[in-house]
Specification:
It is a single chain. The chain is an all-alpha fold. It has a single domain, classed as Phosphate transport system protein phou homolog 2, domain 2 (Methane Monooxygenase Hydroxylase, Chain G, domain 1). Helix content is about 85%, strand content about 0%. It is built from 8 helices and no strands. Helix 1 runs parallel beside helix 4 and helix 5 runs parallel beside helix 7. It starts with a helix and ends with a helix.
Length: about 220
């Protein structure tokens, strides 16, 4: 019975990691679709959302089934709760990637200042780095890396502020609707990284059994 239980735990974690890789790839593709005006890439990201949602729901259902039938305690129970929490955040991140892809679809055929595209691309590259680190921390139960995600997120916040400074330089005749979609996309990228940081906090909780005291005070 315990061997079967261990197998199920590994299967659930493997599925969460697989979902995380999909989210990482789709976020990257959504950014590329926006920067390049690639509607086909945007449509691929949008079309894959239902399947991603289904897989995230499947993680929750599988975890609940294991809790009901195996009565896990201590570390195993923390793992199941944490994987469900992480899957929920990955679903939100997938939704945000879809929102970026929709912004790409709305702005297709229009073009604004290259500086803003460059900032979006730079922000996307940094978000990709955070997501890769998040997945590595989850796969290896790496406490140090999980706690480093907050530090990796800070340059993304700085770029978001820089984006607004560049936006303020737009002339009145330039496409304000285009600019508004770019602002939203930049915000969605920032939120994806924020969710990754939240996942890092949950990985730290799983490994240590304690929530970060500094986070609680904040």
């Amino acid at each position: 019975m315990r061997e079967s239980f261990r197998k199920e735990l590994k299967e659930i974690k493997a599925e969460v990691l697989a979902i995380g890789r999909v989210v990482c790839d789709r976020t990257q593709e959504a950014v590329r679709s926006l920067v390049e005006g690639n509607v086909e890439a945007a449509e691929r990201v949008i079309a894959g959302d239902d399947e991603l949602d289904r897989r995230c729901t499947g993680v929750e259902e599988h975890s609940l089934e294991v809790m009901a039938t195996q009565s896990p305690v201590a570390r195993d129970l923390r793992l199941l709760h944490s994987l469900t929490f992480i899957a929920s955040h990955l679903e939100r991140m997938g939704d945000l990637a879809v929102n970026i892809a929709k912004a790409a679809r709305r702005t297709a055929g229009r073009h604004g200042p290259q500086t803003l595209y460059d900032l979006i691309q730079a922000q996307g590259n940094l978000v990709h780095r955070v997501l890769e680190a998040m997945l590595e921390a989850l796969e290896k139960n790496d406490l140090e890396l999980a706690r480093k995600l907050q530090e990796l997120d800070e340059p993304i916040d700085h770029l978001f502020k820089q984006f607004f400074r560049e936006l303020a330089r737009l002339r009145e005749e330039e496409d304000i609707e285009w600019a508004s979609q770019m602002v939203l996309a930049a915000r969605f990228l920032e939120r994806i990284a924020d969710n990754a940081v939240d996942i890092g906090d949950r990985i730290a909780f799983f490994v240590t059994g304690e929530f970060d005291a500094q986070k609680e005070e904040a």
